[in-house]
Amino acid sequence: MDQFAARFRFIDLFAGLGGFHVALSDLGGKGVFAAEWEPTLNTLYEHNFGIAPWSDVNDLDSDEVIAQTVPDHDVLTAGFPCQPFSKAGEQLGFEHTLQGRLFFKVFDILSVKRPRRFILENVPNILRHRGGQTAATIVAKLEELGYEVQVHRLSPHQFGIPQVRERAYFVGSLDGLDAFKWPTEFEETTSIASVLHSDAKPSRDIPEQTLRAIDMWDDFLRRSPAEVKLPWFPIWSMEFRATYPYETMTPPKLWANGRSGELDGFAGSFGFPLERLSSQEQRELIPSHSRRDGDMEFPVWKQKFIRQNREFFLTNRKWIEPWLDQWQPWEFPSSFQKFEWNIQGGVRDIDEYVLQVRASGIRAKRPTTAPSLIAMTNTQVPILGANISRTGKRRYMTPSECAELQSLGGIDLPESDIQAYKALGNAVNASVVRAIAEPLLVDLKAPKKSAARPQAA
Questions:
Q1: Residue of 298, 299, 325 lying closest to 241 (CA atoms)
Q2: Cα–Cα distances in angstroms (integers) from residue 308 to residues 82, 205, 239, 240, 244, in the given order
Q3: Which of 56, 70, 165, 210 is the least crowded, having the fewest Cβ atoms under 10 Å away?
Q4: Do 184 and 213 reside in the same domain of the chain?
């Protein structure tokens, strides 16, 4: 830290829990401005860092207001909203009226204040969004201001933190980036044990239905013969016993053409017969992934998953049939009827792994890493199997353990677990930022007067 003894000044936009602040403070920086619109996080930021954040960056609505409100600084950081560019959303990008154009607010502040360095963070899909046009627009706009820009994708697990959560980072410098090198990856194996607390006290129990669904899939694993290779593809149990058409014809196409009678003789989810039923009654017996209106033809990937699941069932029906009869998975919600086994070659004991309930099913992962933290609902918080939880029973990871996954273990979190999980899912990882910032800021001396803006042609 000696090389940063002359402190630099930074600002933290779309600050959230303050991952950028933690990282740059560790390198000797002084935060002089922050912006965060969410009231709970705004208040918490002041509590943790002693800076009362500006609320809405849209209120910085002119060069004059920016010049008067935002202090001079050497480094700008921003995790500008990712939802418009995420694969999980509608991918409206800059056309997203509420959030998509907030990058241009970052651009405005860079244009007026001219900090010598910046670090921006977003979801990796921003690099592919609109065929790469969105990222190209961002880089071009930043280069217009005289910055040299580089972009790279990094994940916490590359720095010894047990979480795979890739993000795109944009770095820029008015002094060039000839001396800058992206950080070297960590080479040792990670373990979720490094962030678990032996005295953890989860604030809520796992719902009984979720525990029963986990037991169901644990029994599936235990019944499977050792010589049977478990599927690498998602297991869709609703396709077991199903025979409805899915290649040259689909149920939605038959319904749309008033030909529901052609499904007589076929079976829907779990083998329930479709004959002599109305189209609406048939719809209730077709898996959710195969009954969407307008699906006149299923994409190749979906046809492949359906075919693979049916073939797996037919090959293994001797032990799967008794499992179906005992557990009756059709009584569970659709997300519990699906299972993702990401542990080829692993011991078939579900309590040895980290679990997550997703719309795509219950996912089991090796305890080398936790599932990627997202702005989680209650149902998506990682569940620790009984054999790795340190408490002897299945439990949710606590907010403080999830904070360790974001390298934010030293700050206070929202009092509400729901708000804490959501904020952590939106946070930037402080260790990754520090690894990027250290070589980027190594030649950043004492604050100097803001550089002049490029002259218009």
A1: 325
A2: 34, 35, 9, 10, 14
A3: 56
A4: no
**What total number of domains does the chain contain?**
2
DSSP E strand stretches across 63-194: 75-78, 117-122, 148-154, 167-173
Shared-domain flag, residues 85 and 129 = yes
402 has catalytic annotation: no
Q: Give the CATH number for residue 147.
A: 3.40.50.150
Residue 296 lies inside a defined structural domain of this protein: yes
Q: Which of 82, 109, 242, 444 is catalytic?
A: 82
- Whether 407 maps to a domain, the answer reads no
- Domain enclosing residue 91, as ranges: 2-188+417-441
| pTM tops 0.85, yes or no | no
Same domain, 225 and 358: yes
Per-residue pLDDT of the chain (457 residues; tens, 9 = 90+): 445 444 799 999 999 999 999 999 999 999 999 999 999 999 999 999 999 999 999 999 899 999 999 999 999 999 987 554 444 444 444 444 445 578 889 999 999 999 999 999 998 888 887 788 888 989 999 999 999 999 999 999 999 999 988 999 999 999 999 999 999 988 888 999 999 998 888 878 999 999 999 999 999 999 999 999 999 999 999 999 999 999 999 999 999 999 999 999 999 999 999 999 999 999 999 999 999 999 999 999 999 999 999 999 999 999 999 999 999 999 999 999 999 999 999 999 999 999 999 888 999 999 998 887 776 566 688 999 999 999 899 999 999 999 999 999 999 999 988 899 889 988 999 999 999 999 999 888 544 444 445 544 3
